[in-house]
Amino acid sequence: ITEEIFQTLLYREPTYSIHSLSWPTPDTIPLNQNAHAEGELLVEALSKIRRLKAQLKIPLSKHVASVTLKAPMKTIETLKKQLQDLTNILHIHTIKFQESDILMAEIVSE
Prior knowledge:
The chain is elongated, with a radius of gyration of 21 Å. It has helices at residues 2-9, 33-55, 73-81, 83-90; strands at 64-71, 92-99, 104-109. Strands 2-1-3 form a 3-stranded mixed β-sheet. 44% of the residues lie in helices and 20% in strands. The chain has 4 helices and 3 strands. The termini are far apart.
């Protein structure tokens, strides 16, 4: 199946086979700087909320009713794009955003 998809989508000439090509190197894969930066912000927000849950002795798997994320407006805009990932990974029902100078998390209720 993989060979068929490869031939249909990438190479239409039968002289190439997915099995005879080398693996891509990091140099040949373009880095999307925006996606990378957004991923870094997501990881930072996840870490802050996980750390807060641990400090409050709330199991990571326990659902939390509401969390407030305080951050600069640009960060808030980026994190809003990742809202579903944040709520699913961290077991949070609602995430509220509030503008602040730095990224901070606050559990509003359990």
